[in-house]
Write a structure and sequence with these properties.
Elements: E1 3-4, E2 8-12, E3 17-22, H1 34-48, E4 55-60, H2 71-78, H3 82-100, E5 106-110, E6 114-115, H4 117-124, E7 127-131, E8 135-137, H5 151-159, H6 161-170, E9 174-175, H7 176-182, E10 187-189, H8 194-206, H9 212-220, H10 227-245, H11 251-262, H12 267-282, H13 285-308, E11 317-320, H14 324-335, E12 340-343, H15 347-366, H16 372-379, E13 382-385, E14 396-399, H17 405-416, E15 424-427, H18 434-437, E16 447-452, E17 461-466, H19 472-484, E18 488-493, H20 500-516, H21 521-531, H22 537-544, H23 546-559, H24 561-564, H25 571-577, E19 591-594, E20 600-603, H26 608-612, H27 624-644, H28 651-662, H29 671-678, H30 680-688, H31 701-708
Helix pairs in contact: 1-3, 3-12, 4-5, 5-6, 6-10, 6-11, 10-11, 11-12, 13-19, 13-28, 14-15, 15-16, 20-27, 21-27, 23-25, 27-29, 30-31
């Protein structure tokens, strides 16, 4: 053994080919933390002075190559002064430059995931061999930065500027066939053949069939573009990326600017261009928000893992209610390998549920994500039923019937008679108290909430709600099932609306107050969409369903009368009276008609202002800043209340719930991170400007205390 560290080992065979094996101690994956970078620097220095070195293979002892930089350590880099961060980046660049300058051919043997800094190591090598099951990519723009260890310099030279812009700005993980087609790797082989193939490439160099030196000369030189060619490539890319990224996410456009400049420079100068742009992004608020979200996502997945580790897996599930939601739950369960019984009392409802699931499977086939055989096999995992005949073999039942407390109680009590003493009952209620629903059950310890979001197949979040008598075992099994379905579960305590809807309805209440003052809902929608929401509040209410919102609003008003109860008829009440239920019946705030793909297309209804005129008390002109403040203040205060009342156990879980559940703008990092960025003192002052609007706009005593003490929700 030439070198044996805690992250890297180096061995030499009898043909003088060195194998650098990445194997970070105490971790299930390889990542570049300070220790790994230090050892890599030492290894490269050693290889530079090794006599008669014929080749170097970079490999991994784990089932991934390198997942990237250690983000927890990387966050500390962002806090450095500009000069110190620049020095850190130069040190990493120097290591990879030294690899690219070794006196022999170098090959990356990519056996599994190679992302970020892990793929930048591969790019520093002369050749790359990739397992057919592996994935590679540079996902840094998803964290508000761009590749900072040579990715923007080497990738355009390797695969072309246009492809590199797509890889880096999109941040996607690339499969082996696409990587080979674009020229990012030289060979794709089965995983067990990766190192053998890497050695074969070195042998081809030794036999004179390949020249690593000429390849280096080409990749080190500035790229040759005429001014018109350069303009055509980058203007085209800028238009596409700019429209997709939007103004709130600067990293993709900054990456384009860096690559456009760097391709005309030599490698050293291009590296300095990359470093300068990286430092600017790393100091921005968007990078801080998106990295915080990444770390928060790790926290909630780790928390869910702790809940689920002792749970027995759900081998057979059932869903009660076969509408769009029931069909979505059935599809999601069956598509991830857990067979499910879909029960309803009406044959036509079962047909609707099966049709919904079938439509989703067909969509997967059309996109090339499933073969017809696999889709048919998964579809066969859904068993329609009009009775409880097979419920004695079910591990977990999801109740997804109408959002009515009496109906739900009756269905749950009936179901309990047909299941075993260990079967978990879970209600897909969006607002109704789990403790209340459990009152008539014989085994309330086996009952909890399992709140899916619509559409089930797209929305990643599942709220698992603990009632007053819910057992740890029930929570654990439900969390385990949510994970098996490919969802991100967050465990919350019981209250009307739980976490997401409890926070969402003050946001809607702020909107309703503006509507009573004669606000133009289209202006409100456009303002909030420009602010970063995927849709404005009127459009969102149409998507949720005006009828659903109306009934949920009654539950929330009863639960929190001091701030969520309203006098008189508001806009939602009026639309409900007229049975304008939104997208589900093609008229709400907007009108809807199918587009060419059959999806509802939003249109302005010229009658809507007359319809809502009776709900307007005054006519007030509102600026965009007023609209944003009046929408965001109630949402942020309610999120803080949920944390204070232990409805949710951490700021990370609260913020990820809003990101995943209602599309809170990710560039802001979640409601509590947004408060930290603004500063609670500034927020409380802003809220006080709207105190005349009532309790919705009144910060809690704890928020004011934190403001006085300069405390934050995330700490340092």
């Amino acid at each position: 053994m030439m070198f044996q560290g805690k992250a890297i080992k180096v061995s030499m065979d009898d043909t003088n080919i060195a194998t650098v094996t990445l194997d970070l101690e105490g971790e299930s994956v390889n990542k570049f933390n300070g220790l790994a970078l230090k050892e890599l620097s030492e290894v490269v220095a050693m290889l530079k002075t090794t006599d008669d070195l014929q080749g170097v293979v970079f490999a991994s002892a784990k089932n991934v190559f390198v997942v990237g930089a250690d983000i927890t350590e990387f966050m500390s880099w962002f806090k450095l002064e500009d000069e110190d961060l620049t020095d850190k980046l130069r040190e990493a660049h120097h290591i990879f430059k030294e690899i690219s300058n070794l006196c022999c051919p170098t090959v990356a043997a990519i056996n599994g995931i190679a992302l970020g800094g892990g793929f930048e190591l591969c790019l520093a090598c002369d050749y790359r061999v990739m397992a057919d099951s592996a994935k590679i990519g540079l996902p840094e723009t998803q964290l508000g930065i761009y590749p900072g260890w040579g990715g923007t310099v080497r990738l355009p030279r390797l695969i072309g500027a246009d492809n590199a812009c797509e890889w880096i700005c999109g941040g996607a993980q690339k499969r082996s066939e696409e990587a080979l087609k674009d020229g990012a790797v030289d060979a794709v082989v089965p995983v067990e053949k990766v190192q053998e193939s890497a050695r074969h490439l070195i042998q081809q160099v030794q036999d004179g069939k390949l020249s690593y030196r000429s390849r280096r000369d080409v990749l080190r030189a500035p790229m040759q573009f005429s001014p018109i060619e350069k303009m055509m490539v980058f203007e085209s890319v800028r238009g596409v990326v700019g429209a997709k990224a939007g103004k709130h996410y600067p990293a993709p456009m900054a990456a384009i600017k860096t690559m456009e400049k760097g391709i005309s420079q030599d490698m050293d100068k291009a590296a300095e261009t990359e470093i300068k742009g990286f430092v600017k992004l790393a100091k921005g608020t968007v990078a801080k928000s998106l990295v915080t979200l990444f770390l928060s996502d790790q926290v909630i997945k780790k928390t869910a893992g702790k809940y689920a580790k002792d749970a027995t897996p759900v081998k057979q599930a059932a869903v009660l209610g076969a509408g769009i939601m029931g069909g979505g739950v059935a599809y999601q369960s069956a598509s991830k390998g857990t067979p499910i019984i879909m029960k309803d009392i009406r044959p036509e409802a079962l047909e609707l549920g099966l049709s919904e699931a079938n439509k989703l499977f067909n969509g997967q086939i059309e996109r090339g994500r499933l073969t017809a055989d696999k889709a048919l096999k998964a579809m066969n995992g859904i068993t329609p039923a009009l009775s409880y005949g097979e419920f004695g073999h079910v591990d977990l039942v999801v109740e997804a019937v109408v959002e009515n407390v009496k109906v739900k109680k009756a269905v749950l009590a009936e179901t309990e008679q047909y299941i075993t003493d260990t079967t978990i009952l879970a209600s897909n209620t969006s607002t109704i108290s789990i403790t209340e629903l459990a009152k008539d059950l014989k085994r309330p310890e086996n009952f909890c909430g399992m709140h899916f979001f619509n559409p089930v197949h797209r929305m990643p979040l599942v709220e698992v709600i603990r009632g007053a008598k819910t057992s740890d075992a029930a929570v654990a099994k439900t969390v385990s099932y949510a994970q098996a379905m490919g969802k991100t579960p967050i465990v919350v305590n019981d209250c009307p609306g739980f976490l997401v809807n409890r926070v969402l309805f003050p946001y809607f209440a702020g909107f309703s107050l503006m509507m009573k003052e004669g606000a133009d809902f289209q202006q409100v929608d456009k303002t909030m969409e420009k602010f970063g929401w995927p849709m404005g509040p009127a459009y969102l209410l149409d998507v949720v369903g005006i009828d659903t919102a109306y009934h949920a609003d009654r539950v929330m008003a009863e639960g929190y009368p001091d701030r969520m109860k309203h006098e008189g008829v508001n806009a939602v009440d009026r639309l409900y009276e007229l049975e304008r239920f939104g997208q589900k019946n093609s008229k709400g705030f907007y009108m809807y008609e199918p587009d060419r793909k059959g999806k509802p297309k939003k249109l302005f209804d010229p009658e809507i202002n007359d319809i809502l005129a009776s709900t307007v008390d005054t006519k007030t002109e509102l600026s965009d800043d007023d609209i944003i403040a009046r929408m965001m203040i109630p949402l942020c205060i309610e999120t803080a209340r949920c944390l204070e009342e232990n409805i949710v156990s951490s700021a990370a879980e609260a913020d990820m719930g809003l990101i995943y559940g209602i599309g809170f703008p990710p560039y802001l990092g979640g409601a509590l991170h947004y408060l930290d960025q603004m500063g609670l003192q500034a927020f409380c002052q802003l809220a006080d400007n709207y105190s005349h609007l009532g309790k919705l706009y009144e910060p809690t005593a704890r928020m004011r205390e934190m403001a006085t003490n300069n405390e934050t929700y995330y700490g340092e």
